[in-house]
């Protein structure tokens, strides 16, 4: 460690590795949601392919041993001077890798594939998944800086953004809701005067169907069948906003949630993951121009795409399959998709999907 507590710069370490390798206005209106289901549920059938395979090093003569000794000496020095950096390199803390920074814009490529041998366990439910580097809960959801927009001041926009993330927490991360309880906190943030949405909510929990499926907005598991592993749900996504009609602040959320689960039976230890990506667009309207209760929002649209959550099974619950079910079920006949690939917009993902067929996820 250098002066002032500074660690060895990245460029210096990379240079050393290279050299060592080389041998060197109007009446208020009532809002209506353009809420529609454009979802494709995918069955996980394929194992992840190795991203990078290990190749044994060629044997060297005395020159190689000198290089090895030099490398070992420097490695020991770095461990002594900067152990935290080394922990990040090799994924210390039970296989964890260095956490990713919060997503600020859509990535231009999917995350790399992890070695197939790294299977999820009760102790490490995200092992073998890109989600191991994602944030925990709302920490993985990027929140933009607030600026005065439309009818709202900077402070009001900041409050709207916070409540937006509160809705995501209450609808897709709340432990009770994940166990199948009614999402009261989330529903309390929805404009009660948006009648088509209220009709959808009333029907979805009473008689779920393709058109009225609570999974469009809420993540729920049937506790008699499965239970979450641990108390962490990994997330990656972001929140953006713009000015909409009548000066409204239109907020778009695009978030992928990764849920590790086991069977509900005591002693179950087979861990599988259900992956859900939702895009929810909401409007924080001016009460002087739209019929709305203060502190609530109106929906503009919502979309969902899920992996290992059940295909054409509209029970109101995510229904993951385990190895035994996958072995006896037919593979999806739709096109393959990587559920961790956030480089494609939800609009593109939905356009590529065919609701009439179950697709195949390339990894879980």
What is the total number of structural domains?
2
Mass-distribution shape: globular
How many strands appear in the DSSP assignment? 10
- Amino- and carboxy-terminal Cα gap: 39 Å
Overall SS class: alpha/beta
Low-confidence stretches: 1-8, 16-24, 35-68, 78-95
Query: What is the typical, i.e. mean, pLDDT?
Result: 80
Write a structural description.
The protein is α/β, with parallel strands linked by helices and 364 residues long. It has 2 domains: 1-24 and 59-97, no CATH class; 34-51 and 112-361, no CATH class. The chain has helices at residues 10-21, 62-81, 83-89, 154-172, 175-178, 184-187, 195-206, 323-328, 346-352, and strands at residues 41-44, 135-136, 141-142, 226-228, 234-243, 249-263, 272-284, 298-307, 336-337, 359-361. Strands 1, 2, 3, 4, 5, 6, 7, 8, 9 and 10 form a 10-stranded mixed β-sheet that branches. Helix 9 links the parallel strand 9 (336-337) and strand 10. It is globular, with a radius of gyration of 24 Å. The model is unreliable at 1-8, 16-24, 35-68 and 78-95 (pLDDT under 50).
List keywords for this structure.
ten-stranded mixed beta sheet, alpha/beta, 25% helix, single chain, globular, 9 helices, 2 domains, 364 residues, disordered N terminus
Brief sketch in words of this structure:
The protein is of the alpha/beta class and 364 residues long. It has helices at residues 10-21, 62-81, 83-89, 154-172, 175-178, 184-187, 195-206, 323-328, 346-352, and strands at 41-44, 135-136, 141-142, 226-228, 234-243, 249-263, 272-284, 298-307, 336-337, 359-361. Strands 1, 2, 3, 4, 5, 6, 7, 8, 9 and 10 form a 10-stranded mixed beta sheet that branches.
């Amino acid at each position: 460690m250098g002066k002032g507590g500074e660690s060895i710069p990245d460029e210096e370490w990379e240079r050393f590795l290279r050299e060592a390798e080389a041998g060197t206005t109007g009446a208020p209106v009532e809002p209506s949601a353009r809420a529609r289901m454009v979802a494709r549920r995918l069955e996980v059938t394929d194992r992840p392919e190795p991203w990078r395979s290990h190749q044994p090093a060629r044997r060297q003569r005395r020159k190689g041993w000198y290089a090895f000794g030099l490398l070992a000496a420097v490695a020991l020095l770095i461990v002594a001077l900067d152990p935290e950096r080394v922990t990040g390199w090799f994924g210390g803390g039970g296989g964890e890798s260095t956490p990713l920074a919060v997503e600020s814009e859509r990535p231009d490529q999917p995350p790399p594939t992890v070695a197939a041998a790294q299977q999820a366990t009760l102790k490490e439910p995200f092992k073998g998944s890109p989600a191991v580097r994602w944030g925990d809960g709302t920490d993985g959801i990027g929140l933009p800086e607030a600026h005065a927009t439309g009818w709202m001041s900077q402070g009001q926009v900041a409050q709207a953004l916070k409540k937006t993330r509160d809705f995501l927490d209450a609808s897709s991360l709340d432990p009770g809701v994940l166990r199948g309880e009614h999402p009261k906190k989330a529903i309390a943030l929805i404009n009660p005067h948006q009648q088509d949405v209220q009709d959808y909510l009333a029907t979805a929990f009473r008689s779920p169907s393709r058109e009225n499926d609570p999974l469009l907005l809420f993540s729920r598991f049937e506790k008699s069948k499965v239970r979450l592993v641990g108390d962490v749900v990994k997330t990656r996504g972001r929140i953006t906003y713009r000015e909409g009609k009548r000066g409204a602040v239109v907020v778009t959320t695009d978030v992928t949630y990764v849920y590790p689960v086991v069977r509900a039976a005591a002693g179950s230890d087979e861990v599988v993951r259900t992956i859900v990506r939702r895009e929810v667009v909401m409007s924080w309207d001016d009460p002087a121009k739209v019929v709305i209760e203060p502190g609530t929002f109106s929906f503009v649209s919502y979309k969902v795409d899920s992996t290992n959550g059940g295909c054409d099974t509209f029970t109101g619950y995510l229904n993951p399959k385990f190895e035994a079910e996958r072995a006896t079920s037919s593979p999806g006949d739709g096109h393959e998709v990587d559920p961790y690939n956030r480089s494609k917009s939800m609009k593109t993902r939905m356009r590529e999907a065919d609701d009439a067929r179950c697709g195949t996820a390339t990894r879980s």
